[in-house]
Specification:
455 residues; Rossmann fold; Helicase, Ruva Protein, domain 3; five-stranded parallel beta sheet; 45% helix
């Protein structure tokens, strides 16, 4: 059993560590702050994390929220000095196994650890013996971020069909990741070391089609001062990915069909044909069967392109992937813009999970990137997602008690300090520990609960 203890109090860290060692648990690590804990948990597969709730800067709930998606089999036991039922419920909903109030009885703590470890073993056993719905993402498709059984099943099918070298058609709404899957098929195919050439068919003018796809010889037309290698020749020995193939004009479809059938073509102005060995993967966000019925797409070309068909579902049909993808895009954006944002507030994540995403994964990626640019705290809040809060300002002038005034002032300072607990404690003339206790108590008041969750 490997355990990590996370607590900002040195006495608590050492006493719990000694207890566990005395009970025979040899592998016990300690961490005295939430920020470092997030890195440690993401990097190391701990069996159990004993997590203090009240810590400066990054508290236990933030640690839990930022690490739970990466460690689904790690069990978290929350330790706190405040018996707060709403916080308990929130922690359990976020994936904590148990919640104990300090000072914790030694036998009770060890019993909670024992049960959490047994629960972890049960989960791992279920995942190992699960059916095909629990299959892992094939290595060639490792760039596809998903925990959806449906997507994993599709990728396993793509892995098998990739080995044939035959043309494959990928359909799905815009932004569902068709090119990403095409790259995986290329890596899993018979020519993974060859080039991968991606072409947006809809962006090529009809007058330039032959020159762009088949190339031209020197002097083939006015301005052709040097020979040009077309897309098919560039992709020789590899894969040609034809995105938005449904936008190809009907007059040009026969030329594409001829190349697919004969595997050779004449560059413009050339006297000799060029033979190529190219794997063609095409993609469309249109229903090409309907396009054929309407006379806008050649049925014989569709048969050539569609020896295997993979349809990617929209993001709204894979809701379990939204939080996973959001965390992935958050890390990428933070790295790109050199910002330190550790995760999402529960309200922000609720907003993300509630959207329809007509632009699918691409839209979610852009939302997260913009939110990181706008972020002025260590968590993504609803306002960073472009949402306007409907909560009435707590600073409106009204008759109130001194206690209410003190609480409103604390909220005011927190807001203007962008949630920086250390700065707020300094301004108010109290310790960070005292500040955390005040916040924990105030969260029990419905007037402050939602506001504090956003700070």
């Amino acid at each position: 059993m490997r355990i990590l203890i996370v607590d900002d109090e040195e006495v608590a860290l050492n006493s719990v560590k000694r207890l566990l060692k005395w009970r025979g648990i040899r592998s016990v690590d300690i961490c005295d702050n939430g920020r470092d804990a997030i890195e440690r948990i993401r990097e190391t597969d701990f069996d159990i994390v004993l997590l203090d709730l009240l810590m400066p800067e990054v508290d236990g709930l933030q640690v839990l929220e930022s690490t739970r998606p990466y460690r689904p089999h790690t069990e978290f036991v929350i330790l706190t000095a405040i018996d707060d039922i709403p916080t308990t419920v929130k922690a359990i909903r976020m994936g904590a196994y148990d919640y104990l109030v300090k000072p914790v009885d030694n036998d009770l703590l060890f019993l909670a650890i024992k049960r959490a470890y047994e629960h972890r073993g049960l989960l791992i056993g279920l995942s190992v013996t699960a059916d095909d719905d629990k299959r892992e993402v094939p290595d060639a498709f490792s760039e596809t971020i998903t925990q959806s059984p449906r997507i994993r099943s599709l990728l396993s099918y793509a892995q098998v069909m990739a080995g044939s070298g035959n043309p494959i058609m990928i359909t799905g709404e815009s932004g569902t990741g068709k090119e990403l899957v095409a790259k995986g098929i290329h890596r899993a195919g018979p020519m993974p070391k060859g080039p991968f050439i991606a072409v947006n068919v809809s962006a090529i003018p009809a007058a330039m089609f032959e020159s762009q796809f088949f190339g031209h010889a020197k002097g083939a037309f006015t301005g052709a001062e040097t020979p040009h290698r077309g897309y098919f020749e560039q992709a020789d020995g590899g894969t040609l990915f034809l995105d938005e193939i449904g936008e190809l004009p009907i007059a040009l479809q026969v030329k594409l069909l001829r190349v697919l059938e004969e595997k050779s073509f004449y560059p413009l102005g050339a006297a000799k044909p060029i033979w190529v060995d190219v794997r063609v993967i095409s993609a469309s966000n249109r229903n090409l069967d309907h396009a054929c019925q309407e006379g806008n797409f050649r049925l014989d070309l569709l048969y050539r392109l569609k020896s295997a068909h993979i349809h990617l579902p929209p993001l709204r049909e894979r809701p379990g992937d939204i939080s996973l993808l959001a965390s992935h895009f958050l890390r990428k954006a933070c790295h790109s813009y050199k910002k330190e944002v550790i995760g999402f507030s529960p309200e922000a994540m609720d907003l993300l999970n509630g959207k329809d995403y007509p632009g699918n994964v691409r839209e979610l990626s852009q939302i997260i990137e913009n939110a990181v640019l706008l972020a002025d705290s260590n968590l993504i809040l609803p306002r960073h997602l472009g949402m306007t809060s409907t909560i009435q300002s707590p600073f409106a002038r009204h008759l109130s008690t001194l206690k209410e005034n003190d609480e409103a002032h604390l909220i005011y300072v927190l807001t203007n300090a962008n949630g920086d607990r250390s700065k707020v404690a300094q301004i108010l003339g109290i310790t960070v520990r005292q500040l955390q206790r005040k916040i924990a108590v105030m969260k029990k008041n419905p007037r402050w609960e939602s506001i504090l969750s956003d700070i």
